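Model the whole thing, not chain by chain.
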Amino acid sequence: MSEDVEKTAAGGGADGGARLVSRRSVMTLAAGAVGVLAMPAIIRSARAAEVLYVNTWGGSWEKAASKHLFEPFTKETGVEIRTVSPVSFAKLAAQVRSGVYEFDVTTLGGGDIVRANAAKIIEPVAGGPLASALWKDAVFENGVSSHAFSTLIAYRKDRLTNGGPQNWADFWNRKDFPGARSLQRYGARVLPLALMADGAPKEKLYPLDTDRAFRTLDRIKPDLRVWWTQGQQSQQLLRDGEVDMIGIWHGRALELIDQGHPIGITWNQAQIDRAYWVVSKNTPRREIAWKFIQSAVQPERLAGFCREALYGPLNPKAFDFIPKEEANRMPTGPENYPLAVEQNVEDFGDNLQKVTQRFEQWIAT
Amino acid sequence: MLSVLNRGTAAPGALKPWLLLLPLVLFLCAFFLVPLGQVALMSVTEPEFGLGNYAHLTSDGLYLQVFLNTFLTALGVALCCLLLGYPLAYLMAQSSPRVAALLMLLVTMSFWTSFLVRTYAWMVLLGNNGPVTAFLAFLGWDPPPHLLFTRLSSTLAMVHILIPYMVMSLYSVMKRIDPALLRAAESLGARPWSVFRQVYLPLSAPGMVNGATLVFMICLGFYVTPVLLGSPQEQMVAGLIGTQIEEFLDFGQASAMAMVLLASTLIVLTVYHRRFGLDRLWG
């Protein structure tokens, strides 16, 4: 509650400050030296008053975003960016319901953005100021595509000495690749992997055949010793050797490899997840929010962010600012992208909620 | 009536204890009772008015199973705490005050360590490359058993976290047992085992009940430990409530589950109160 009051006050201050500056500017012309001396202080106070609240994933994500997206934006516009973490879909929904805004801007994944758009908890892009400035297909379900990560197969090279699983069918092959496995506790991502393991071609995964996916999952259930829910946890499981192979986010796997752990990965059948910038519905700061988003997907800034946070940019122009060997560590890089599998969140098949419920039930029994 | 009024005006100081309670009462109202009321309201209004959420709880096998699992786990943890805590509390009650204080320090030490750190410590200890697995392998257990992500690992961690409550409940009761009663039993010819079974054990029973009730109720709401250490097949209610909100945005269903969990705790408390009196719960 108090936070809301504070933010409203800050918003009011922003308007007041801007008016003050323009009136003062006129006076400055007339009054000369006195006004010139007073200007810096006035501009500072006007700048400090304008604030945008961005929901971030924290940690290295936030560090990279601060350096490449937030700070340049603040320098350019004077709008201060304050961060709130972690990213929570539930909070996005709750704040629209309550009218108390903890953040104005957040990133959503493919499944979530369809849900969010259907639930009308994000602002429509149409009518916003940025539609013309973007590349083709940049806007999806009222979100602006920014960057991507992939879920790929990583394995312990010291345990799987036969080269390790090179596709999801191998991952499901308990005979040739024995050992404990882990996948993310996230049905919408896991079911397509199961279908690929069962031999479904990647362009025919959607709409999902859920029954077939669950039948396939049954085959490796005994080896799925743990379902990870957080990136950190997935890294720990593989690093400490709790599992021998894992479906893991590519950035997490690359970090382990860079640290010198005996980890192998394959980009083959890597499952791409796109992240979209969205604006929280009805937030009083939506105009600044759209301005920020437009600046955040500029090729050079996006490239900087992706290089540091180990993502793949979705603005194709960003690759102009990325060295080739780094592009090959990105899921959307020219060598990796043809091997990857995109998710089709629009034509998912069964109702997402029903699938998730069934998935939870399947795990629990 | 008049005398009551008189007493009220004659002794204004009598009001003061209630005034001292006021800040806490206000705090609890604002940050506990009001939100709790909102949760209760949500459970019967989201997505529509009625008892639909509660009906769904009873009709879906998953919920019943998770509730059953939660109660069984809490019961198991309470029993383990009792079995492990009783000898320790007994030792403390029999020791010199200095030794007792030292033991108490050791028991409560885990209170001062963060919850997550303790949980992660168990992951390190019980992991595939951990000392326990290495020791079992050394003893010739080949291949060594998987200890992590099983009922064993989550139960172990919860017992570790909750055992101080049990030991303190038992100790406070055992400390008050009059040694003269034990000596009397001995002087009447009872063997040590009979003294313990027929005199000491019944006298320490209130501590057992207190400790078990506390541990059971706290354990019902455990979230992090079973999620991080337990087997995926053995979910507890708090974890499922989290999933309901984060994955399904189903605030109504989650609220209904929270209400059922709260009601179960209150039922246990009521039974305890009827039988023993609530004021004795903390020893």
